[in-house]
Each structure stands twice: as C-alpha cells, then as structure tokens.
Write a structure and sequence with these properties.
Blueprint: H1 14-31, H2 34-48, E1 60-63, H3 81-86, H4 96-106, E2 112-114, H5 126-135, E3 140-145, H6 155-159, E4 165-169, H7 175-181, H8 187-204, E5 210-216, H9 225-235, E6 239-243, H10 252-255, E7 279-280, H11 286-289, E8 304-305, H12 310-313, E9 314-317, E10 322-324, E11 338-339, H13 348-355, H14 358-367, H15 386-396, H16 403-412, H17 416-426
Parallel strand pairs: 1-2, 1-9, 2-3, 3-4, 4-5, 5-6
Antiparallel strand pairs: 7-8, 9-10, 10-11
Helix pairs in contact: 4-5
C-alpha cells in the first residue's frame, strides 16, 4: 500500500495528472489548519493500514447541487437520463438548508468541496450562495460546468462568489468536434463565457477562480489538441487539460483516442497515459492487461495497483441528500448508503457513527480486496466498479503484483491459481461482468 496514493477518476498524460493534483495541493495549503492536518494524518493512517474503520472524517466532499443538465453527453455517468425520471431518484436541486447542514457538520475538517455531480451547477442562482457559504467556512470550492447556458452578465458575480476552481467541460476546438460529444451545447457561447470570466478576473484584480478548460480526448477530436492549446492562451484560461474519459466497452472502437505512439501531437511533452486509474505498468504489458495476449509463466509481467481511496478521503451527497461512496451509481436511490437527514443537524458524533458503520466498513473491505468477487453484495456500487476487481484480474492474467497485494488476494480467493488456469484455457474470469474487463 503506497503512502502517497493519489488516484484520479480519469486517466491522462503525466503532466495533466500533475495539473489536477496541483489544484488539490493548492486547496490544502490555502485552507489547512492544525485540526485539519491532524484529521488528514488519521485518515491516511487508516487508509495505509487498510483498516475498515477511519480515525478521521472525509476531507474532500462532493456535493451535487443539481442533476439537471442542458446537455446529453454520451458517456456521462447518468447518460440514460430516462432511468432517473422513470425509476430513479428523479431530477432536482439541493435545497440551501440541506447544503448548509452538510457544510456545518463537516467544515471543521474539510479542505475542499466539489460542488457538482451529474448536472450543470450554474443553472440555478442558489449556486452563488452555496459557494459563498462554503468559502466563508474555509473550504476551497470547485464547480465543473459546461457554461453553454451561463449568462455572461453573471461573470463578475461568479468571480466574486469565492469560487476557487472552475472546470469548464468543452470537448472540442470547433463546433464540429464539440457537437459530437457536448450534445445540446453551444460551442461559441461556451468560448465567450470562458472569456467573460477571465476578463472579470482581470477587471477585479482576482487570481481566482482558477479557470481550467477540460478537454476529453476522443478519436474525432485529438487532432485539434494543438489548436485548443492556442485558443486557451487567447482566452486567458489558467490551464487546459487533455484527459481520457471512461468509454463504455461497446463504444471503444469508435471513440477511443489513438495511443500516443500513433499520433505524435496527441500529448506533446506531457508524458504517457496510464492503462487505468490507480494502475501502473509498462506499455508492453498493457496488451496482456487488456486480454489481447497471454502472459508466459517464465516471465510474469508486473503491475503496481492501489486500493481505492474514496471510502477514506471522500463522500458524495446526491442533490436529494442520498449518500454514496463516490459519484458512480447516482441514478438509483437503492445504491445509497444512507441519507443526510440521518445525522445532519445533529453532531459530528452522529456522522462518525454512520461513517464507521457496518455498510462503510464492508465497502472498505471490498476496496482493500478482502471480499471475494463472487460474494460481493451487488446492491453496492463498489461491487460493479473496476477498481476492486482489477488486481484479481491482473493476477489471473499472469501479472506479478506487490507482495502485500498478492498475499491479500490469495487470502481472499485461495483458488486464484486455478482461476488463472481457467483464464488461460477458457478466457473466463469472475470479473467478466464488469464493464471494460474483457
């Protein structure tokens, strides 16, 4: 288990990952207090030891201000929006009293709140008061928005709200490439609104919010990366990031960007893209990880894997108060660990009882590879996530993993050697039902 485990939700070039982590480091330095520092130490000690209880509180919060969105991006986590309305939690926005209760309970140890989920945060005017409420309690606030319905006359209001980090989702450098993914958006309006916000910062002499253009790399738009870099300079954004999204398996052939060795301009000077968040291996071994080649026993490929840190550092609140360990599986309330109403407005002790309750302990055991894949309770989103399955899959496919990880895997599934032979002979894995494994 690595002491420094900074696993991102998406994969990108090395420099892109550094850019993302630098914003978290900025929040940590800007909002750190002795109490928060002690809390981080307790959380990280619990994580490094792989404990199922945590000695501190989550210090990175994710709060969905709304799940209503003006766009229909193909690979959004909630891309099947009909399910939300028909048999899911429905659409709505978080009311201010609930948001303030969340902040009141967790502010003493929180460094950052990502105030977005599956929707467009700037659709509702309450977002400005939410940002100010959290900022005034010494928490760094981030929102991610597509800005295509943002009113540029609100640019100064946003700049003066206390917002620390603005991520702008604009996945193209022309209307033609933008429209393929940002369905329902407006490319030129997005560009104009980014410019208006940057101009408002200059007008008021503000360094914040840090304006961060996020550009998802696909096969149809990666040729525009050099052009997007130039546009970013002209607009005046602080950074532009090129990252690989999680593409559903059935769409990979059409959408997946070409590998870096096939397009020299894709990530010029930014480093290689890893195979998956939390996994490190050589480029030669990635074909084995994808199941395209069989590993030879005499020369086992190697991979470094890291357990998921979400159940230790972070917590996700849906717009209606439903709680999840991360931002996946937000559509169905049946996946919720609980509701904010269980403990908010009470004491931090009430939250701690929930945070270290039976359900969260079970999920931490899943994330630390202590629950056999065949026995994972499918009512929890972690059971269908690639992260807790991946070390088992890599072992089956012949990889040599860190000794501590291998020991834990063999204790969890003692028949892994037989499962490896089954994979070699039949191409069958206990993780075959997990998207992207095959």
């Amino acid at each position: 288990m690595r002491v420094f485990n900074f696993v991102l939700a998406t994969t990108g070039p090395t420099l892109t990952n550094v850019k993302i982590l630098s914003r978290y480091a900025f929040s940590a330095l800007r909002h750190m207090t002795p109490r928060k520092l002690v809390n981080i130490a307790r959380v990280e000690w619990s994580r490094v030891r792989g404990k199922d209880t945590v000695g501190g509180f989550p210090y990175i919060l994710k709060v969905e201000s709304t799940n209503v969105c003006n766009q229909r991006c193909p690979f959004c986590l909630d891309r099947d929006r009909s399910k939300i309305e028909d048999d899911g939690r429905g659409f709505g926005k978080m009311d201010l009293p609930r948001f303030k209760q969340i902040i009141d309970v967790l502010a003493p140890t929180a460094l950052r709140v990502n105030l977005y989920g599956s929707g467009e945060p700037v659709l509702y005017p309450d977002i400005y008061e939410m940002i100010r409420y959290a900022a005034d309690r010494n928490i760094g606030v981030t929102i991610s928005a597509n800005l295509s319905v943002f009113k540029k006359e609100n640019a100064e209001k946003l700049v003066l709200s206390g917002l620390e980090h603005l991520i702008v989702s604009c996945h193209g450098a022309s209307p033609e490439t933008y429209d393929k993914y940002n369905i329902g958006g407006d490319f030129w309006k997005t560009q104009e609104n980014m410019k208006a916000i940057c101009d408002a910062k200059k007008k008021h002499g503000k360094k914040l919010p840090f304006v961060d253009w996020q550009f998802l790399r696909f096969s149809h738009n990666q040729h525009e990366i050099p052009k997007a870099r130039e546009m970013a300079k002209e607009i005046g954004v602080n950074a532009i990031r090129f990252i690989n999204p999680n593409i559903p398996p059935e769409h990979k052939d059409e959408w997946r960007p070409r590998r870096d060795d096939e397009r020299s301009d894709a990530n010029s000077g930014e480093g290689a893209v890893q195979v998956s968040p939390g996994v490190s291996m050589s480029s030669d071994d990635q074909a084995i990880a994808r199941g395209e080649k069989i590993a030879e026993n005499a020369n086992r490929p190697k991979a470094a894997v890291q357990a998921c840190s979400w159940p230790y550092r972070s917590i996700f609140f849906n717009w209606d108060g439903g709680i999840l360990p991360c931002c996946d599986g937000t559509t169905e309330p049946s996946h919720d660990l609980g509701s904010a109403t269980q403990f908010l407005g009470k004491t931090r002790a009430d939250f701690e009882a929930f945070w270290n309750g039976a359900d969260y302990r079970y999920l931490r055991n899943i994330s630390n590879f202590r629950v056999p894949r065949d026995e994972m309770d499918k009512k929890w989103t972690c059971s269908s996530c690639i992260k807790p399955h991946l070390p088992f899959v890599l072992y089956e496919r012949g990889f040599q993993l860190p000794a501590k990880i291998e020991k834990r895997l063999l204790a969890t599934e003692p028949d892994l050697a037989e499962r490896r032979e089954r994979w070699r002979n039949e191409g069958v894995s206990s993780s075959s039902h997990i998207g992207g494994m095959e």
